[in-house]
Amino acid sequence: MVRHLLKISDFTKIEIEKIINKAIELKANPQDFTSALKGETLLMIFEKPSLRTRISFEVGMQQLGGHAIFYSIKDSPLGKKENIHDTAKAASRFVNIMAARLFKRHDMWDLAQYADVPVINMLDDFAHPCQMMGDFLTIKEKKGRLNNLKISYFGDAYNNVTYDLMRIAAIFGLELDVACPVGSEYTPEQVVLDEVSKISKETGAFVNIVHDAYNAARDSDVIYTDSWMSYGIPIDKEEERRIIFTPFQVNSQIMEAAKSDAIFMNCLPAKRGYEQTAEVIDGPQSIVFDQAENRLHSQKAIMLFLRDKF
């Protein structure tokens, strides 16, 4: 059966750990894997732009001995000129892996449903599993473990990064405080809350939605934030959102409330003076560029895993 990665909970804890361990090996000894995907092709379908996602996948495939094709559907929307069923079926005849960065989760699900090769979700409005794999690789590097951790997230919780952060925290039995404004447009969807609750009952995780940033930061090992202006949010909403989210900005007071050895993460792009202050993101506790680099190594491991190469 063809496996896909559409959200981080498509993989078990054991599988996630296996992929992270392989990523550590790939990072340490890249020369040992230069022919791992020799002769294979990755099709990257982009509806939403990205710097880090495109570079990391394209470079990663090249380093594994394969070839990556970048295809923008900006001028030919997926499912319009040709339906998604036919796109998936036709592309499966040419390539070994597909990866897509799309606006809508249903388009991603349809692509995977009809593809005959593995599909990797590079981002949609419901999940960002590749980000989580890179993030947890980075946390393991910095903390030496993926258990007994408290993570605190600040800002916009109605987004894909938050959803998969909640899922993976639940899978690993961690404590996660999601600090966000009150209101359905700023908090996670009920379907995500229900999924995370179900996983947490099995693993003993504590995933909480809170509305007090300072209390959320207390005793945290990892402080995490994301953009207040995700793709698709109208620019005329920026000032309104700045006012609403400012109480959840990661600043020196938030970092001081966390553990003294807490690390700061942002999946980038970041705007200084918005979701975090410059002194935080450019400070000694920030690991955002290690986090960005690790997308390369973790995605290489994901591709190898989905191609049954380890």
Your description of this structure?
The chain is an alpha/beta fold and 310 residues long. The protein has 2 domains: 8-128 and 292-306, 3-Layer(aba) Sandwich (Rossmann fold), CATH 3.40.50.1370; 131-287, Rossmann fold, CATH 3.40.50.1370. Helices cover 42% and strands 15% of the residues. The chain contains 12 helices and 9 strands. It has helices spanning 13-28, 52-63, 84-92, 105-114, 129-143, 160-171, 190-203, 213-217, 238-245, 252-257, 278-281, 288-306, and strands at residues 41-46, 67-72, 97-101, 119-123, 150-154, 175-179, 206-210, 222-225, 263-266. A 5-stranded parallel beta sheet has the order 7-6-5-8-9. It has a 4-stranded parallel beta sheet with strand order 2-1-3-4, with helices on both faces. Helix 1 (13-28) crosses helix 5 (129-143) and helix 5 packs across helix 12 (288-306). The chain is globular and about 55 Å long. The mean pLDDT is 96.
Q: Any idea what the CATH superfamily of the largest domain is called? A: Aspartate/ornithine carbamoyltransferase
Number of domains: 2
Return the structural class: alpha/beta
Tell me what portion of residues adopts beta-strand conformation.
Answer: 5-15%
Please outline the major beta sheet.
5 strands, parallel
Give the low-confidence spans: none
> What is the first-to-last residue Cα distance?
16 Å
The name of the CATH topology of the largest domain is Rossmann fold
The strands making up the biggest β-sheet line up spatially as: 7-6-5-8-9
CATH architecture of the largest domain: 3-Layer(aba) Sandwich
The count of strands amounts to: 9
Can you write the helix and strand succession as a string? Answer: HEHEHEHEHEHEHEHEHHEHH
Number of helices: 12
What is the CATH C-level name of the largest domain?
Answer: Alpha Beta
Rounded mean pLDDT is: 96
